[in-house]
Amino acid sequence: MQFPLVPVPFGPNASVEMPILPVRLASHKSSVQSNALVDSGAMISVLPYDLGLQLGLDWNQVPYAISLSGAMGGTAKAVVLSTAVGTFPPVNVVFAWSSNPNVRLILGQQNFFKEFDVSFFGSRG
Is position 87 within any domain? Predict the structure, then answer.
């Protein structure tokens, strides 16, 4: 299955094409459709705080705290969500549910890249 790179605004008069996938995330309470950045340099997949709330997650009930570094710095909680990409069957993906409201949904090495074979073809878009 192939997905085109998506132009994302970058500065006032420019954009950059990025590997963004439509995904369906599901918890035991709810599901949401969203767009996620596929980031081969990210160690872990990251779930924005507001998406976690939409999925019915309760920050105070998730016991596994972890730390995020870099631009996403702050506290996060480890959550496992059913994640569906395109027509592939859903798989469980571990996310760092970030308390930082400014992060984007990211699919990273652990464990998205363990579940899916990913290739980037930037020259072909």
Answer: yes
pLDDT tens figures, 20-57? 999 999 999 999 999 999 999 999 999 999 999 999 99
Whole-Å CA distances, 119 to 10, 12, 18, 19, 116: 23, 30, 13, 10, 10
pTM of the full predicted structure?
0.89
**Alpha carbons 36 and 47: distance in angstroms, whole number:** 9
CATH number at residue 59: 2.40.70.10
Nearest CA-CA partner of 92 in 100, 80, 106: 80
